[in-house]
Design goal:
The structure holds two protein chains of two kinds. Chain A is an alpha/beta fold. Chain A is 36% helix and 16% strand. Chain B contains five helices and five strands. The chains are: A alpha/beta, B alpha+beta. The complex binds adenosine-5'-triphosphate and magnesium ion.
Chain lengths: 118, 141
């Protein structure tokens, strides 16, 4: 699906780089531990997280991720948004909690085929 | 590119929020130089983990990155407390990070093993009370 489809499935508000919303994404992961994202995630394009600090964007940037979804309605600061803008990462915010957000995306076809066990 | 390019960064240990600036800059430079996405990702992840470690465990330090056609070499030197037992520190899940750091999304004890995984050469020199230097190399295959 495209990043704009992720936003619509999650009723999410896009916070920056909506110019990249047509980008195709094929896999996602959800975590509040950036250590785990750095250690276990492999070629996943979308990061869902309830953690809000600049290192979330840095982590996604290093992992070549395309999109970050802040769940539970979390509101990122201006600093976080400008970091993402510069890194070319789409940020969005959804009011759904983590479990529901992941479930909705999975049910809509964003499955991590062949890429889901450690 | 014939000569070796050298980048030196001072990593500020007092500001967790700005950690990663050096790694992001290296990533940008490697992209500009036309290295493969695979090499860039390995270097970025390994260096970022090391940069975060310098900030959260050692109050900052100096990162030196040398880039040639066939290799990227990263040296992270700090004057922090040193590592008492390297073997223990290298094991997955071992962390001395306080709760304050865990609340920021780090401190799972995965960084050092992850750095080793992404590097072709990996070495730590450390002395208690003096500091730690991590040497990493990624070859351009
Ligand atoms: N530069 C350093 N100076 C002093 N101690 C360090 C340094 N780097 C790592 N350590 C020690 O080694 C332990 C393991 O490091 P590692 O990077 O694997 O995990 P972490 O930083 O605690 O958590 P994570 O990397 O998963 O966020 C640390 O908790 C710390 O005790
Ligand atoms: Mg670490």
């Amino acid at each position: 699906m495209r990043i704009k489809d992720v936003a619509s499935v999650l009723s999410a508000e896009i916070l920056c780089r909506s110019d990249l919303a047509e980008t195709e994404v094929k896999s996602a992961c959800g975590s509040d531990m950036m250590s785990d994202v750095l250690a276990y995630v492999k070629d996943h394009a979308v990061l869902l997280t309830g953690l809000v600090n600049p290192q979330v964007v840095r982590t996604a940037e290093m992992m070549d991720m395309k999109c970050i979804v802040f769940v539970r309605g979390k509101n990122p600061s201006e600093q976080i948004i400008s970091l993402a803008e510069e890194a070319g990462i789409v940020l969005m915010r959804s009011s759904y909690r983590m479990y529901t957000s992941c479930g909705l995306l999975y049910a809509s076809g964003l499955k991590n085929e062949g890429n889901d066990t450690v | 590119m014939n000569e070796t390019l050298k980048y030196v960064y001072e990593v500020d240990g007092s500001d967790f929020m700005s950690a990663g600036v050096a790694s992001a800059d290296v990533k940008k430079n490697l992209k500009m130089l036309g290295f493969s996405g695979d090499l860039i990702k390995k270097v970025s992840i390994a260096m970022y983990e090391g940069e975060i470690n310098m900030v959260i465990h050692a109050n900052g330090g100096i990162a030196t990155v040398e880039v040639s056609d066939d290799c990227v070499s990263i040296v992270l030197a700090d004057k922090g407390p040193g590592i008492e037992d390297i073997e223990l520190a290298m094991s997955e899940g071992y962390s001395t990070a306080p709760d304050r750091i865990r609340a920021l999304g780090f401190g799972a004890g995965m960084g050092l093993p992850n750095m080793k995984k992404y590097c072709d050469e990996f070495k730590i020199e450390t002395e208690l009370g003096v500091g730690t230097t991590v040497y990493m190399k990624v070859y351009n295959s």
